[in-house]
Amino acid sequence: MSYHAIENLVESTILIIERSHLSIEEQRNLIYNLYQFQNRFDTSYTTLRCFSFLEKIGYIKKLPVDQHPDYKSDSEYFASIEENWIPSNIDQADEGDVVFYEDGFIFPEYGSDTWKRLVEEGKWSEAKEEPQEIPVLNLISTGIELAEKYKDKSLMHDFYLAFLNAFFEFDISSEDGIPKYFEDWTNNGELLKLRELFIQHSLLSIKKKETEF
Fold this sequence. Notes:
46% helix, elongated, 6% strand, alpha+beta
């Protein structure tokens, strides 16, 4: 599967979310889960593609590097930064989360370790709630339903093929709600819902060559 296709699927879905009537909290949480899905694959960092909207809903911030939670305790480290990814916690540099850095600014994201630390310091008041995991099967269904609501047939096709390719390439598994045994598929509510969506919107007939996948 083309991982650029996954990047574009996530970006296209965010553009629809921007048009939606979902609450800001629902938008943030859905976007968080979309990026979690994207990060399963060998994709590039693409969050800044939708920066204006994501900043507006409190999903991302552009902050001077001196607002990093560890800046005051180790300013020398920050004065010598040469890479685009720096630790969220410099005491856990080898195993902790990272935050994107560019031209003197950090770009912490909702749900990250840097976000948690900034919330604790009272510097991220507009998005204090913890993100809630959306299971992959439910995320695919939600994506198809949103695309259908805004009449984006191409995006519906992409969600179908994203699911299909991820399944056959073992990027999703029993840990994501995929039954190990075929007979259990007929009793899985989320898979049955997906099947109905695939049939209802004629997604089973889509040809791979007609999409980025």
